[in-house]
Amino acid sequence: MNIQKPGPGTPTPDWDITHLREHLQAAVDLEFWTIPFYMTALYSIKDRNSDAFKLIMSVANEEMLHVQLASNAANAFGVTPTFDAPVYDDRIGIPHLQFALDTPNPTDIFTPHSAELGPLDLARINAMCLIEYPEWLTAQGIILKQDRSAYGSIGAFYDALRYGARQYADAVRGNVNQVDIFKNFFSNFPTQTVTDNGARGLAQVMTLFEAITEQGEGKSEGSSEIPPEFRNTADDDQPDEDHYVKFLSIRDAAAGLPATYSGDPDPKPGTPGHEAQQILIGKFGDFRVTLAALFAGAHPGHFGREMSALGGYVLNCWKLGAVPKFS
Fold first, then answer.
1. Could you tell me which Gene3D superfamilies the record lists for this protein (predicted)?
2. Which residue has the higher pLDDT, 219 or 56?
């Protein structure tokens, strides 16, 4: 069931609180899905000094911030986020997004594309561009959907989430399992947490959503620059560029895509590649448990170590001839 934003004199559409909470968990799912997908392409690049490596690394780092922001928003509305193992299958696609719903259809531009894990090739960089495709390049208005898997872009998804969240401002509770791990990387960010109840807390939630969309797709038409308050101030060589612009520059670089490792998605048991995959599966499983604990109010001291170590396990798969596998 689609519920479009009303015009003058028409009734206001609404979700019940269950739909809102389902969409908040879906936001966490979507942001979390991108991390293994981007990391797999990132560590397939042989030259770590290449522009492509640096750009994708900067995006992957901000996707971890997005997981934090989406989880903080979820907790503010009474949703303790879960972190199930993402699925990477072209038959299923990218969670909660159906790009062909957009007008014009961006899949006509970014083809071929793949939702399966693999090296940085044309299919993967096209998928990255689709994920971060700017909503303002389409003709869609705000559409609320009961089906949380029927949005044409991340921007459309978050527009609906904002619109639904405003209906339940009274449900916002501040200081519920809020996490602020990345504040030292974004020193101009006003707040990465929800500390107030009600309308004031809702305004903080809206800031979190704005940061996600501005960093990802540069939501403001006519400008692809990330607003200064949402820029990485620590370790991004191009902090003003949104994810879509970064990915597009990789795709359209005159020199072409960088050299990458190749790998077998299903190496035989007992081979070094298979063993590397099993290690990564175990480590990523541990990381998911740690994330769930972190956003349920625990304070696991090993979060930073686990997060930083994942890249090495991904790279090891590639070096041993296997496509990284996370579950």
1. 1.20.1260.10, 6.10.140.1530
2. 56
